[in-house]
Write a structure and sequence with these properties.
Strand content: 15-25%
Number of strands: 28
Number of helices: 28
Largest sheet: 8 strands, mixed
Helix content: 40-55%
Length: about 850
């Protein structure tokens, strides 16, 4: 639609012209219940009336307001009624001849969403209750009320809402119900994308956070947490509040700026596209963070990290906001880093840096090797660019770079810089230089050079140790060799620790006996501090995970890991070794079957449950994408046998047992494996200590459906047993996974040719559609994919478009022919939307990487 994709240039022009004094927004959400729909069978709508008071620096000039709505009833500018058909084109309201001071009033019919964008409406299949919530980032508040949709036009907001009788409504500020209308306290100046609503019969729990500062001032923050009524029996709000209070203590201790937004509600909402969103006073989370069954410590750690990530945003992002999405890292990188930093120091999850090294950085390494990689400070031309840049670079690489920055400038200088940054820029907008200037003040370091190397260039460096031994067997010289990809040749300065590991005289664990922390710069750096040390069995570059790089090994270290990876006693060091081996596999330097063998031999000794879960995911990917096709069946059998062996060996009732049970289900394919799963469901088979709760039942049903053992009737019976929103998502995924041409055709049509399903069910259908064991069954859809994606991108919301383009790419048709078809589409669609081309280019790169890895694996078999 013309004008819907706001460009950076347009935003800059509008920001130079306009400043906003305030919004008054009135919504009538009573249409959320009942049979009322939109006119002539259109979407269900609600009334939205917005008053914006703003100033214009050049009276007489023109501009525009943003609104995406099915219809506009009335528009008034400075008391003059405008014809909506003349000034509104579906996404923008033209504003001509502006005065120095202006008042715009827009009365519109806005649409409820089924895609998680704007005002999402969810009907709970369990009890028929209706729940609403909003999600806006980067630019979907214009689906709910008229506004100037860009982060640097901040303003105070006053909201009022009419809702169905018996409902409660929440927003950013404290609300009161008076004469049937919910009225909310005026917000501080904030950006449009972090305003928020939740409305419905939510289950709501309250608590209070109290803090007395050294000067005697007292801070009291009302806390709230909510979820659907159907999830109330599982809602462990006490733990949510515990992490919340620990986080608030940590940030008050270190930021010297009291939480500025009054109350702190946290809403766990259905069919959410993201992990969470930092709306001040009303943070939203996906409801999967409420656990219906037994989960491992890693799940609680992940939830704690997300809670703290969003809390860090109250300062990095909400209090101080980037001018435009180019500097998205100013909020997301900091929140990602501070989430782990605060979790490790303030909560029970003291091993959080292990998860960060093994999990978050893996996301960054993949993103940084795609053709779409970009500097942490990105070039964001428009809103479609912005939507796609919520990626592994902006989050995990940026957080890794900040971890390196703390090592570079020092912890105290880093935190003092943050404190000055908040105080100087409170309720304002900033760019890169605003932060660098305070860090230069507090550290005395040259931040411009550091920024140029780390924030303004793309790509990941590889660090490899070189060890030369003297005649007496001690180290004569140890050097670190730094390499970069040809496409991104920047060699960066790294602050790294190099650890030397060996076994004791009688064997046993691999322990660190020497460590040096040095600055690596340029192609080769000699580590003089380690000269003369006894010969190591393992050299670990980037020990303690101080920098962002791909770790490589010398030949001796790699042999040591092949023989005894499980003997590395330090959990972080072991996690770094696993991550490095996975990168070698992805880079076609280690055969996939060798990585699978390492998992089979050593994963059972992994103490960190989050690392174990990551190893399972990597092993599955290695088998599906990187193993030679002729070895897949053998590899699958080996993984299933190994998983079952570890499942039976695990401590009864332990989180390791649960993790191995889930992994066994994910790789089960043989007749005996499937019979065991069916027996566990029926109760005729048993693994001591394993509680097959409802969530685990669905995990067992998925492979049964995939291999034709669980039919439609069996899945319907399971849904009757679990007739909930979660159960419906599981059933839809399992239905789409069945090995039938008719099933695949129906799934394709429901996602590609229809827009009646919600975002959550679209996601579930796509997940079930492409099963690794069904390559031949879905092969006909490879050509269809390239025929439809441009139309889907044009007709559907960007969220659904992203789900379809990413999820249905024919990656299982891993042949040069699919690569050629992708190249042909790209060549024929050079003028397609840049964001669409980016998604296809990324998928193409993954496929090309898979083919290289398969060739490496096949070569290993040939030389075996």
């Amino acid at each position: 639609m013309p004008g819907e994709n706001l460009s950076r240039d347009e935003a800059q022009e509008r920001a130079a012209l306009l400043s906003v004094d305030g919004y008054e927004v009135s919504l009538d959400l009573r249409s959320a219940v009942g049979d009322a729909g939109g006119p002539a069978g259109g979407p269900r709508t609600f009334r939205s009336v917005t008053t914006i008071r703003f100033r214009c620096a050049e009276p007489g000039a023109g501009s525009f307001a943003d609104l995406i709505a099915p219809s506009v009833t009335a528009v008034s500018l400075n008391g003059k009624d405008l014809d909506p058909s003349e000034v509104f084109d579906g996404s923008r309201i033209v504003l001509d001849d502006l005065a120095a001071e202006n008042e715009l009033v827009v009365d519109a019919q806005c649409a409820y969403s089924r895609t998680g964008e704007g005002m999402h409406r969810f009907v709970d299949p369990e009890d028929g209750e209706i729940y609403l919530y909003t999600q806006y980032e980067p630019a979907d508040s214009r689906r709910v009320f008229a506004n100037f949709e860009q982060p640097d036009l901040k303003a105070p907001f006053r909201f009022e809402v009419r809702a169905p009788e018996g409902w409660v409504v929440w927003s950013n500020g404290v609300g009161e119900l008076t004469d049937g209308v919910w009225r909310f306290a005026e917000t501080k100046p904030i950006s449009t994308y972090i305003t928020a609503f939740a409305a419905g019969p939510y289950h709501y729990v309250t608590d209070t956070y109290e803090r007395v500062f050294e000067d005697g001032t007292r801070l009291e923050i009302p806390l709230g947490a909510m979820c659907r009524k159907g999830l109330a029996p599982y809602f462990d709000s006490d733990d949510v509040f515990l992490i919340t209070k620990q986080g608030l203590d940590f940030f008050h201790d270190h930021f010297d700026y009291p939480y500025p937004f009054g109350k702190y509600d946290q809403a766990f909402v259905p069919e959410y596209n993201l992990g969470a969103m930092e709306n001040p006073g009303l943070v939203t989370f996906r409801e999967e963070f409420i656990f219906r069954g037994k989960v491992t410590r890693a799940s609680y750690e992940r939830r704690a990290n997300v809670i703290l990530h969003e809390m860090a945003h109250m300062w990095f992002g909400d209090l101080v906001t980037m001018v435009w999405w180019d500097d998205l890292w100013l909020k997301e990188s900091f929140a990602d880093f501070m989430g782990s930093f605060s979790m490790v120091e303030a909560t029970r999850f003291t091993n959080g840096w292990v998860t960060f090294a093994n999990n978050r950085k893996s996301w960054a390494y993949r993103a940084d090797q795609l053709p779409s990689t970009h500097p942490v400070t990105a070039d964001i031309r428009d809103l479609e660019d912005a939507k796609l840049n919520f990626d592994g670079i902006t989050y995990a690489k940026g957080a890794s770079v900040l971890k390196q920055l703390v090592a570079y400038v020092g912890r105290d200088a880093f935190l003092e810089g943050a404190r000055r940054y908040f105080k100087r820029n409170a309720y304002g907008n900033t760019k890169l230089g605003d932060l660098l200037s305070v860090l230069e003040e507090t550290s005395g370091r040259d931040m411009v050079s550091w920024s140029r190397a780390w924030l303004q260039t793309a790509g990941v460096n590889s660090l490899t140790p070189q060890v030369l031994l003297a005649a007496d067997g001690r180290i004569d010289e140890l050097a670190v060799v730094q390499e970069a990809a040809e496409s991104h040749p920047e060699l960066r300065p790294h602050r790294v620790a190099i650890g030397l590991y060996r076994r004791g005289a009688e064997g046993g664990a691999l322990e660190r006996y020497a460590r040096a922390e040095v600055d690596v710069d340029g192609p080769r750096t000699v580590v003089g501090e380690l000269a003369g040390a006894e010969a190591p069995e393992l050299v670990l570059v980037n020990d303690d995970d101080l920098t962002y790089c791909k770790i490589r090994f010398d030949a001796g270290s790699l042999d040591t890991l092949r023989a005894g990876l499980g003997d590395v006693c330090d959990p972080l060091a072991r996690a770094l070794c696993w991550s490095a081996l996975w990168n070698l596999t992805r880079d076609a330097l280690l055969p996939a079957r060798d990585f699978v063998d390492l998992v089979l031999r050593f994963a059972g000794r992994e103490s960190d449950i989050g690392v174990l879960q990551m190893l399972h995911a990597w092993a599955g990917s290695a088998l599906t994408h990187y193993a030679a096709p002729e070895w897949r069946q053998t590899g699958g059998r080996l993984l299933a046998e190994g998983a079952l062996r570890e499942l039976r060996a695990a401590e009864a009732g332990s989180q390791h047992q649960l993790t191995w049970a889930r992994f066994f289900a994910s790789v089960a394919s043989g007749e005996g494996d499937l019979a065991l799963l069916r027996g566990l469901l029926a109760g005729t088979e048993k693994v001591d200590g394993l509680d097959v709760d409802q969530e685990l039942r669905w995990a067992f049903l998925e492979p049964l459906a995939t291999h034709g053992v669980a039919d439609e009737a069996m899945l319907a019976a399971e849904l009757a047993r679990d007739d909930t929103a979660s159960g419906k998502r599981h059933q839809v995924r399992c239905l789409a996974a069945r090995p039938s041409a008719a099933v695949k055709a129906q799934a394709w049509v429901s996602v590609v040719e229809s827009d009646t399903m919600s975002n959550a069910l679209v996601e579930a259908t796509i997940a079930g559609f492409g099963r690794p064991s069904q390559r031949e069954l879905v092969a006909p859809y490879a050509a269809k994919y390239f025929e439809v994606i441009e139309r889907v991108w044009a007709e559907r919301s960007i969220q659904i478009g992203m789900d379809v383009v990413r999820g249905l790419f024919p990656s299982l048709q891993d042949s040069p022919g699919t690569l050629d078809a992708t190249d042909a589409w790209l060549a024929a669609h050079e003028k397609a939307a840049p964001a669409l081309r980016r998604l296809v280019l990324e998928a193409r790169d993954d496929l090309a990487r898979a083919l290289r890895a398969q060739a490496c694996d096949a070569a290993a078999e040939a030389t075996a």
